[in-house]
Amino acid sequence: MIEPFTVPFMARALTEILLLAVICGPVSVFVFARRLSFTSDALTHTVFPGVVIGFMAGQLFAGALVAAIVTAVALTLLTAGGRVSDDAATAVLLTAMFSIGVVLVSRRSSYTSDLTSFLFGRLLTVTPRQIAETAVLAVVVLVALAVGARAMVFRTFDPAGAAAAGYRVVWLDLWLNLIVALVVVAAVRAVGTILVVALLIVPAAAARMLTNQLVGMAVVGTVLIAGAGYGGLWASWTASIQYGVALTSASSVVLLLVAAYLLLVPVRLLRRRRRDPVVPERNSAHELVG
Amino acid sequence: MNWWDDALHRATAEVVLAGALAGLVGVQVVLRRLSFFTMALTHATFPGVVAASIIGVNILLGGVVAGGIVALGVAALTRRRGQDASAATGVLLSAGFALGATLVATQSGFSRDLSSFLVGSILTVGPQDLVTTAVALVVVALVLLAGARPLQLIAFDRAGAEAAGVPVARWDIVLLLTLEVVVVTMVPAVGTILAVSLIVAPAAAARLWTDRLWPMTALSVALAVGSGLAGLWVSSRWNVAAGASISLVATALLACSWLAARIRLLPARLAAA
After folding, report:
1. Among A84, A168, A197, B140, which has the highest number of CB atoms less than 10 A from its own CB?
2. What interface predicted TM-score (ipTM) does this complex get?
3. Domains and CATH numbers, chain B
4. Is residue A94 within 8 angstroms of chain B, CB to CB?
5. CATH superfamily, region A3-275
């Protein structure tokens, strides 16, 4: 079970996933509680033009960072007010930014391979330099999260109360959007968009089945990502070495995470039957973005 | 030579049909805030399409089956109290995409298929795609026409509609399945990004101009078809990706509508201040 990871590139891939597990566990709790699933999905798409421009200029990391920060600011402003509802605004920003990226790559001769590597990432060719970049961003994200956590929890569960207590809700929203954007930048080149979206949404949703406590959710989420990361890499290694089946490592990690979510659904139902808590009714069954 | 033999002519016809389809259903998407669900549908039908093409059955069938499962799943999940629809939709989205990508990766030469799935290839639509889109357009228009009144009631006052005896849950499922049909028809022809863009942006723009349902729908269809045609022209004029230019034109129309709405409301706001 350890043998595949004695190969240097597998060890590096595992290191990258474990680093991401440390940041994505806590961040996904906020994504879950604030219902930012769509925002996370949008951010993974909107960094694409930044990646393209950065690639042309030879500064891929900086390009992605700038695009992510621009999106976080634009999303905060668009959802803060105005007559366009926030889910429509998010969808339009997503498609527009992604289209800009596509227009830019379509001017080059062969763009399908670029797109594919953007989707899947290159988990198995992670370089020590990329791991260092991820580690630096992980520290920044964790510090930012620690600084803002109290206020953001307050704002999540009682927006009016937070505003009355003197917190600027818009700034808190921007803070969280920037944190999610940084996670996306840290992860997207190594592991691709498919895996980043899953890492931001699934862990906390699965952990919610086990516990109601935010810290507990963060810990369970981190453990789930680490487990799925290890299992996914191992499965993809075994499948390709022993059975000759091409199983992309990023998607096997996602599928393991989703499997964990599905396995935990009955646990949640059991817990609920035991305690039978009072759950507030939502006013519309179809407001898919909070 | 037949008029339909030219790729650009076929693309034009497809853009008009797909635009009308997207504009029609887009109004409901914007009013009911289903944008994320639309995005998730485009990704979740992906494994169905891939599996169908591996088995060798019609890919539309695969998409319809996979999308139907997802639509009913979301309907079931959102009916249970306390379930977070946003997270559940997100899980479905990543699961569908990863599953589809895994299936594609087992086949050789997959990068081309994947990118055409994402950004579409509107310049290569065949007569088959045109017929499918036209049929879907007729069906969707009839369903929305038949359901216009209850859907309008539910969109603006859900509790009121329920109290008035409208079968809310049944109409919800009808709407989700209609949206699913639209997504399944549009994605193979125009790609996921353009499908979402054409469904959401024109309707959101139309919403800025009027509060009434019929003018909103007409305007939404007109804007969707218009941005499709303008985008195609831009694409052939400057040789950039067609799908991307169409969605950028749609975005630009929304931005202009937003500015216009701000300017229109300015006197009222100044008077209030």
Report:
1. A197
2. 0.84
3. 3-272 (1.10.3470.10)
4. yes
5. ABC transporter involved in vitamin B12 uptake, BtuC (1.10.3470.10)
